[in-house]
Amino acid sequence: MITENLAKIKATLPAGVCLVAVSKFHPAEMIAEAYQAGQRIFGESRENELRQKVEALPADIEWHFIGHLQSNKVKYIAPFVSLIHSIDTEKLLDEVDRQAVRFSAERKERLGTDTIDVLLQLHVAQEETKSGFTPTELVELLSANEVAKRWPHVRLRGLMGMASFVDDSDQWRREFRTIVQCQKDLLEGPLKAQKITSEQFSVLSFGMSEDYPVAIEEGSNMVRVGTAIFGPRNY
Ligand SMILES: *Cc1c(COP(=O)(O)O)cnc(C)c1O
To answer: SS3 breakdown of the chain: % helix, strand, coil, rounded to 5?
Structure first.
């Protein structure tokens, strides 16, 4: 079923849209099946679960961390993580930079780079439980700090967001547009001033099983799809 689901989804993705297969709460065997079908990018949201899966699965998988990340857990994923989607505080960014230095040798060996790629998470949904910066906070953060000096071991690759948990595609669209607009504002404002280009700050990670077709229409170039590939999760 996983193979068929993947094929179906991939057939609908335009060129340039990256598929992150969200495998949280599913066993390594299911990830292995998706791997056999050619999928190489997987998203996980819990640090301990991710570490176990990294041990059990092929080394050429690109692991993305997509869940809420506590600062004291960064050290556990820093040796191998390819992209952290969920940077939601300045303090967390500081810690990722620190751990990139600490695990520089491991990262060079495993990934060929010691910098850590990250996305800044935007809070666009109505639910207070979701985390992330507001667009204004991000403009302020990047205006107040020179990225290359303050976080030299981190690469800011773009933005991530999650739409509200509602059955209303017009609301999803409004929230997705806030993310796209924020990318524009940052690129034309504080990032431009620091010579960070749209090629570098290019990733727009939004869209999940329910809303990824709408997300792509609104400009997403990285969708995080779990249920539509692996089926429902048993929490
Ligand atoms: C679980 C999760 C997803 C995938 O959700 P599905 O609805 O199963 O596709 C995407 N992004 C984040 C941040 C998640 O936590």
So the answer is: 45, 15, 35
Nearest CA to ligand 1 atom 4: 226
Q: Which atom of ligand 1 is nearest to the CA of 209?
A: 9
The model's pTM is: 0.98
**pLDDT tens-place string over residues 12-21:** 999 999 999 9
Closest-CA residue to 176 (of 129, 208, 131): 208
Q: What is the 3-state secondary structure (H, E, C) of 48-91?
A: HHHHHHHHHCCCCCEEEECCCCCHHHHHHHCCCCCEEEEECCHH
Residue 111: Cβ within 10 Å count: 16
Cα gap 158→218, rounded to integer Å: 16
Q: Whose CA is nearest to atom 6 of ligand 1?
A: 226
Could you tell me the domains of the chain? 2-230 (3.20.20.10)
The mean of the pLDDT values for the chain is 97
